[in-house]
Amino acid sequence: MRRSLPLTLATCLTLTSGSVLAAPPAPAAPTYRQEVVVAGSPFQGVHGLALDGKGHLLASNLLGQTVHTIDLATGKVSPLVGPPQGGADDVTVGPDGSVYWTGYFAGQLMRRTPDGKTRVLAKNLPGLNSLAFRKDGRLYVTQLGRGVDALSEADPSGKKPPRTVIADPGFLNGFEFGPDDNLYGPLLLKGQVVRVDVDTGTLETVAGGFAMPVAVNFDTSREHLFVLDSVKGELVRVRVATGDKEVVAKLPTGLDNLTVGPDNLVYVSNMVDNDIRVVNPADGSVKPVVEARLSVPSGLAVAPDDPEERLYVADVYALRRVGGKDGAISQTTRVLSSRMTFPMNVSLSAQHVVLSSAYLASLQVLDRASGDILRTIPNTNGVQGALELADGTLLVAEAAKGRLVRIAADEAATSTVLAEGLAGPVGLVADTEAAEPGVYVTEVDSGKVTRVRLADGNKRTVAKGLKAPEGIARHPDGGLIVAEVGAKRLVRIDPATGRSTVIAQDLNIGLPRVGDLPPGYLPTGVAVGGSGTIYMSSDKESALYRFVPVR
Predict the structure, then answer these.
(1) Coil, helix or strand for 451?
(2) Are the beta carbons of 440 and 454 closer than 8 angstroms?
(3) Nearest C-alpha neighbor of 484 from the set 497, 498, 467, 463
């Protein structure tokens, strides 16, 4: 008995007039060409500076968790201490040549001895910020922000706990000891430069009238202080005896720290521009030492109907507009000199830009046309992704709480929980045109992509088994593009089947989480243009990439 063959797609056979014909092959999945949109930088927002006396500049890299050395003769930048121990806000060199630095998020005081051994000297110091040695070898540190405002004496050997010298001085930032053994430093909250007797705890004003003084250092005469005003973008020379001020150089806003060389040249860091410059106070001339184009690119967004595919980049220290095709930066809104609060995620609605920041615990809504900040909403629950719905309601991923919440468009910004029990929700993308509108959520700790129904918060697992998924975006074909950070790759997920296909791998993404920042830390952003080109940020490189379909 002869059996007939089943006619299936698997056999790829069609019988016509007694002939056997091959069915047309299914279209091949697209492959992608990886290209650089904006080249990277050694830093993720450079902060404290110090000279080691051997021709090198030390630079602290808080979010990138690295202490770097810069050879001033060649300009070469090299890591001295890497993640996670190198997360430094400020750095200095001790009397024995050891390098000391402050871990702002980790709350740790660190030391690296000349033979290369690194150890923790003190723990549980949230907001640990600036540090300096007095000429007798005593070490002083400040804490500011994260619920603390204090000046303390620390033991350079790590044997004794820190001793508080002054509580609530007004955010004492980058400071230095003077020839009189008093401490000189800026008070961020008061716009003053002050003198502190660390033995008695008394404090007196040297000069005032600054918008936001962030750091001071003496010139070689030890009669003047160089002062950085971050909001005004000025390097100011202050005569200590009289308090008289003179602007030495105009610089971009976002200045963070400085150090002065034996030749009286002033090295200045800028966290917004992620660069270091050197100022000659004799003539006010400024030259670059290390340059960059982005600071800490994280969340990305692109309008689907924009033929130029211009990207909104949450660059932590700025919101930037970057040409997806040419990499040109056309617009920058800077922190400190504006009311912007350190954006880490960004999304677009028809009229607004929505920013969220776990760094400064807030959400902000901006007018897309003007860039004006319309709303600022505090949120201390580790906010990551945020979206605006058509009625003005915000959907927010509270990564520290494992929740998706609604924030009403009313003035009170009333918050209600839509879904909970999520394991580190980070990325959000809307699916509001479906019969049952919803939102897709990446869960970095469980390795899932989950769909949450907007009507009632019902959850459905779309994909699982991923390694630390963060950024997520919708492709024009309906697929989900996800940055699978733990696997160092970019994947496409079919929302109907959960099937995952790899778009690119061996990507340099995924700085380790540090301190009490929420799951996702600096999220790897993903956006897709109308052409199908995929854009991705790299936290490790401070770079932007695109993946262009080639077939």
Answers:
(1) strand
(2) no
(3) 467
Query: What is the mean predicted confidence (pLDDT) over 387-395?
Result: 97
Burial class (CB in 10 A: 0-12, 13-18, 19+), 410: exposed
- Residue 45 CA, chain-centre distance (Å), reads 8
Whole-number average pLDDT of the chain? 93
Question: pLDDT tens digits, residue range 132-155?
Answer: 999 999 999 999 988 899 999 999
Here the tokens at position 532 are 């199908």
Would 46-290 and 294-549 be classified into the same CATH topology?
A: no
- The three-state secondary structure class of 231 is coil
* Exposure b/e, 147-185, CB count within 10 A at least 16 = b: ebbbbbbbebeeeeebeebbeebbbbbbbbbbeeebbbb
Residue found by looking up tokens 């830009």 in the block: 353
Q: What is the mean pLDDT of residues 94-108?
A: 95
Quick one: average pLDDT of 192-208?
Answer: 97
What letter represents residue 528's amino acid? V
Q: How many CA atoms lie within 13 A of 394 on its CB side?
A: 33
CB under 8 A, 24+ apart: contacts of 334-339: 334/252, 334/253, 334/254, 334/272, 335/254, 335/272, 336/212, 336/230, 336/231, 336/253, 336/254, 336/272, 337/230, 337/231, 337/233, 337/253, 337/254, 338/373, 339/373, 339/376
Reported confidence tier of residue 6, pLDDT bands at 50, 70, 90: very low
Superfamily of domain 294-549, CATH level 4: TolB, C-terminal domain (2.120.10.30)
Q: What is the pLDDT of residue 516?
A: 82
Distance (Å, rounded) from C-alpha 483 to C-alpha 489?
6
Distance CA 147, CA 151 (A): 14
266/174 Cα distance (integer angstroms): 14
pLDDT in tens, 296-309: 999 999 998 999 99
Instruction: With a cut of 70, say whether residue 22 has pLDDT above it.
Output: no
- Classified as helix, coil or strand, 5 is coil
pLDDT level of residue 515 (50, 70, 90 thresholds): confident
Quote the Cα angle for 117-274-222, to 5°.
Answer: 70
Hey, where are the domains in the chain? 46-290, 294-549
Give me the residues paired with residue 42 across strands. none
CATH number for the domain formed by residue range(s) 46-290: 2.130.10.10
What gap in Å lies between CA 298 and CA 204, rounded to an integer? Answer: 42
* pTM score: 0.92
Amino acid at 99: V
Nearest to 87 by CA among 71, 69, 73, 101: 101
Higher-scoring residue by pLDDT: 516, 469: 469
**Helix H or strand E segment including 138:** none
Rounded to an integer, what distance in angstroms lies between the CA atom of residue 73 and that of residue 118? Answer: 27
Alpha-carbon torsion (282, 284, 287, 289), positive or negative: positive
Name the pLDDT band for 28 (thresholds 50, 70, 90): low
Q: What are the φ/ψ torsions at residue 201 (nearest 5 degrees)?
A: 80, 10
